[in-house]
Amino acid sequence: xxxxxSKNLTEMTAFFKEMGEPGFRAKQVFRWLHRGVTSFDEMxxxxxxxxxxxxxxxxxxxxxxxxxxxxxxxGTVKYLWRLPDDNCIETVLMRYKHGxxxxxxxxxxxxxxxxxxxxxxxxxxxxxxxxxxxxxxxFTQLDSGEPISNIVxxxxxxxxxxxxxxxxxxxxxxxPDGLNIGMRHISLSTCGLADKIDLLAQRKLQLTLSVSLHAxxxxxxxxxxxxxxxxxxxxxxxxCHNYFKITGRRISFEYAMIDGVNDSDAQADLLAGLCRGMAxxxxxxxxxxxxxxxxxxxxxxxxxxxxxxxxxxxxxxxRRLGSDIDASCGQLRRKAMxxx
Length: 340
Ligand code: SAH
What we know:
The protein has helices at residues 9-18, 24-33, 48-57, 130-144, 163-173, 194-203, 218-224, 233-247, 265-275, 301-310, 331-339; strands spanning 2-3, 58-59, 64-70, 77-82, 88-96, 99-103, 107-109, 124-127, 150-153, 186-190, 208-212, 252-257, 281-286, 314-317. It is 35% helix and 20% strand. Helix 4 crosses helix 5 and helix 9 crosses helix 10 (301-310). The two termini are 29 Å apart. By secondary structure, the chain is of the alpha/beta class. It has two domains: 2-59, DNA polymerase, domain 1 (Orthogonal Bundle), CATH 1.10.150; 64-339, Aldolase class I (TIM Barrel, Alpha-Beta Barrel). It has a ten-stranded mixed β-sheet, covered by helices on one side. It has a two-stranded parallel sheet with strand order 1-2.
């Protein structure tokens, strides 16, 4: 069966032509799909014959709510979705004054092995498809009844490890005939796959690139992020400089503050040095404690922030949303897996 919702308009047009249908049908179907219909029978302006033909060759992906948790503190909603093959993924809806934002997953699990992250504990099961990524945005919007204006690719998985799918997802979600979410309203977070950052730079998209740095020196970074053993800090920085030069978009460095691991003044000074020359912005994240991990949240967030600011770096400290509902990476999926 063909995953029709993963097709872009060009592919869809070719597909309909092959079936001997006029090209304009492609746009009609594309629009229905991107409004969240789950069966061809709902496409009321298509003939019965065409609907039957489509049902016989294609499927329309959809997600089922497996669990939904709403934070009593800030209204953050966490969805655990069940995929057609019974795997589960998470999406988080965050409500801000400037609009609603969804944090979506790009893979079932993750193979990057970061020491502080719950998403990677069971390894990677499989990549998501473009329609499965799009559906997280679409079904969150349909379920909550609220428009989504921003997307962050910061859920389960490493988006650049599923590069082609993520590029297709961006194209779909950005489409004027689809959800039409502007690239400037999308952030992509990566653990630092430098070659893929180089590839992304070539696309010259106006999205925001967040790089999960978490340590400014190779010794520390290799300890908490295995990816650093093959892509060292110097190579990662080269890719970041290159990305900034080509796209003109400033990079955001994510830095989860871990007690006694990456929170020293010397590391703040090193981090400031790395940010120079590309107007980078640092986002300090109070570590979310993961039960399986011995790592503890740092108590030096304020001091570290001031030290960076002393070097003229722009620093923000991430607000903790949904702390009462396991809203951070992979925690809910992990619990559901353990209960099964
Ligand atoms: N694989 C991508 C995106 C997913 S993780 C990446 O590495 O960027 C989204 C962000 O949450 C990353 O910055 C990640 O390092 C961070 N993160 C993961 N576990 C965390 C934890 N326990 N506490 C704080 N931040 C965490």
